[in-house]
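Field reference: sequence -> structure
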Amino acid sequence: PLAVPTILAGIRSATAQVIATATLAAVFGGPGLGRYLVEGYAQLNYPMMWAGVILVGAMFAAVEVLLAAAQRALTSPGLRLLAAPQGA
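Structure field:
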């Protein structure tokens, strides 16, 4: 139980890195949301690029919120009390 917060923090960090680097697959012809960024840049289509940025950002935020909620739910209540800031 003591390792759960650290393990889940590592999973959150790894997931954030995967989402951020998955957009690079489009540079090499792969599918994904990065395609909007690469094609928008190639065509100088800035609304398309912004759409890609917003979609990737929204996906990242949604996954981060879900994993943070899972981390909080799976962490022992006693550990949450110890991690709470003390004093004012």
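Note: Helices lie at 4-22, 34-42, 46-74, 77-83.
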